[in-house]
Amino acid sequence: MSLDKIRNFCIIAHIDHGKSTLADRFLELTGTVDKRHLVSQTLDSMELEREKGITIKLKAVRMNYKYNNEDYQLNLIDTPGHVDFSYEVSRSLAACEGAILVVDVTQGIQAQTVSNVYKALEANLTIIPVLNKIDLSSGETEKVKKELIQTFGFNENEILKVSAKSGDGVAELLSAVIQRIPSPKGIINNPLRALIFDSFYDEYLGAMAAVKVVDGKLSSELIKRKEKIKFIGTQNISVPEEIGIFIPGRKRMDNLQTGEVGYIATGLKDIHSVRVGDTITLENEKVEALPGYKEVKPFVFVSIYPIENDKFPQLREALEKLSLSDSSLSYEPENNSALGFGFRCGFLGLLHSEIIQERLEREYNLTLISTTPTVEYKVMLTNGTIEFIRDPSILPDRSRIAAIEEPWIAMNIVTPSKYVGNIVTLCNDRRGILQHMKYPSENTVLFEYELPLAELVYNFFDDLKSTSSGFASLDYEFLDYRIVDAVKLDVLVHGKIVEPLSHIVLRVKAVDISKNLLRKLKEIIPRQQFQVALQASVGGKIIAREDIPALRKNVLAKMSGGHRERKDKLLEEQKKGKERMKSIGKVEIPQEAFRQILTS
């Protein structure tokens, strides 16, 4: 098909504004999926996506559509809306020339709406603003239209109104896609250059690259001749097994030409060899790599252990399989004296962490325990070297540390104006620095804050929802590292450090955090035959203490009478026995206790 008949576009929006439902209507209207086989959220094939009503993985699909008696090829990429999966959005934008911005008229502009518009503008995409759910009586269509005009500068006549559920206005939107979004700008006679915007794994074909062909073409004839392809970034070389498109299932094709979106079965057995953002060309061609997008690194780190230690091999296998379809998941093995063998995993956010853990338990029948989420600290040592610390237990001795830096984020919060005071108080308490405060409309406020990532990890999202009655939304991205006066907080049970409970905390908050943690431990750890000391220390100095009293046993209960001396003798023997137990006794903390303390 000629380039001027191809349109590559994605749908971007805040979570739950109707992206997947709109994609369903597109599939129905273009006849891509038979109406009998169409289900709600057709492109959300994962069980958790349907259950939670959110998109987790981007999905590409080719649709053929007749407009003014001419055939057009529409390549749609459905994107997630939650902030934890914003890296998926950036990947979609790299493969498109235009974007449909969906805004729910019952909710208006939200934090992810703002973030997505800026990302689309940075990528020089044509944006089609769309008001969704116009069929609902609770919607404020005119008010939200004014918000879009004031916030982003759209013209009133370019804003479309649709109901993704009923289908009203969807045909007009498809017409606008053809009229407004430019066709791809590639040269078919140039050497092959294809941008990898997603990767996944097939059990039989190996690593699969979802690509947009920017220049040149790839044909089945090349595959038959066993010609090799080259990955410019990694310098890997392979013989492709198959090429095709998504409709939305995979369909084998003879050609992938300039401007088209499809997949290449690379034949490689390691998914990490196919790096998203890399450029594919033919082995003997010398071409420049395409500008990819910035690679997003994990933000949040959590240690995951199986409750039953003999399930460690199953956990390793499960993580290996999950990482094949989620290249953003990182993991490395670790051993802990209290919890046994497990993995230190890196995630893009708390929801990403929750989704992965839920998939591990559901799909692989594992019962897991996870540690408190932490962030990656940058530690400058006195000898001039720099270390990145993800696990508090491996923080170097204080005498070797010159400075510690923590990650900061740039954060957008959108909230109704009546919650302004609550939001400001919350952000100030969490060390936030206000950069800008805007009013997209008289009843809506947009905050731009800088905040330490560690503050976001520790229940910031829950506190934000509580203080705003659930109406506030946030979006964030990594900013930089900044100096912080942080210390390692160790917890000692009966004189021994319990590594899973170690934290990196602010020095000024160390005492308060210690007291709260020890109070929880006192309630959870079972009582012993001897008194157990719970202590919190910083740099070897004890800063808080709680004692678990010994179990009381009445050794005089069987004595109906007798001399005082006999009773004193028994009590003295009991006292000596307790002291001996205290000196040589060990406190075994049950894993259920860890589960309670780490999830509370």
Automatic annotation (TrEMBL):
Binding site for GTP: D16, H17, G18, K19, S20, T21, N132, K133, I134, D135
Protein biosynthesis in keyword set: yes
Subcellular compartments: Cell membrane
Short name of any one Pfam family annotated for the protein: GTP_EFTU
Record's keyword terms, sorted: Cell membrane, Elongation factor, GTP-binding, Hydrolase, Membrane, Nucleotide-binding, Protein biosynthesis
Catalytic activity: GTP + H2O = GDP + phosphate + H(+)
EC number of the protein: 3.6.5.n1
Superkingdom in the source lineage: Bacteria
GO molecular function, one term: GTPase activity
Keyword GTP-binding: yes
Residues in Tr-type G domain copies: 4-185
GO biological process, one term: positive regulation of translation
InterPro entries per the UniProt record, alphabetical: EF-4 (IPR006297), EFG_III/V (IPR035647), EFG_V-like (IPR000640), G_TR_CS (IPR031157), LepA_C_sf (IPR038363), LepA_CTD (IPR013842), LepA_IV (IPR035654), P-loop_NTPase (IPR027417)
Enzyme class: hydrolase
PROSITE patterns from the UniProt entry: G_TR_1, G_TR_2
Membrane-protein topology: Peripheral membrane protein
GO CC field: plasma membrane
Biological function: Required for accurate and efficient protein synthesis under certain stress conditions. May act as a fidelity factor of the translation reaction, by catalyzing a one-codon backward translocation of tRNAs on improperly translocated ribosomes. Back-translocation proceeds from a post-translocation (POST) complex to a pre-translocation (PRE) complex, thus giving elongation factor G a second chance to translocate the tRNAs correctly. Binds to ribosomes in a GTP-dependent manner.
Sequence similarity: Belongs to the TRAFAC class translation factor GTPase superfamily. Classic translation factor GTPase family. LepA subfamily.
Protein name: Elongation factor 4
